[in-house]
Amino acid sequence: MYRGSCLCGAVTFQVEGELGDAYFCHCERCRKASGSAFASNAKIVPEQFTLLTGQDVLKSYFNPASGLTRKFCGVCGSPIISERTEPRMLTVRLGTLDTPVGKRPRGHIFVASKADWDVITDDLPQYAERPTA
Prior knowledge:
Order of helices and strands: EEEHEEEEEEE
Distance between the termini: 25 Å
Helix content: under 10%
Low-confidence stretches: none
Number of strands: 10
CATH class of the domain at 2-20 and 40-103: Mainly Beta
Strand content: 35-45%
Radius of gyration: 14 Å
Mean pLDDT: 94
Shape: globular
CATH architecture of the domain at 2-20 and 40-103: Beta Complex
């Protein structure tokens, strides 16, 4: 089980079960949502995510072009999860986890659209878009 929270502590959650594949996403939407060069996300089973506190401050932003809903703390702005209904998908921001993750992300995705000022210096695989496997 993993526990997580936002910066101010108003939103707390848990994930019961293992984290799925994690990636550093360099797409424009993730860069804008994180305010950084990339977002660190891991897939999770939607039914294994439980919001413990902060339902009253959790805000959502739906992007019809991507079909993705981003949920964040309305107090401090910390991004918490992203959700898609078709196909059903949920990802958690690794930086919000308070419990050790215990494994490295599998690689960098959408590097074809990464920030021009970003230099990837680790040895993880790099994918122009989303890997197929």
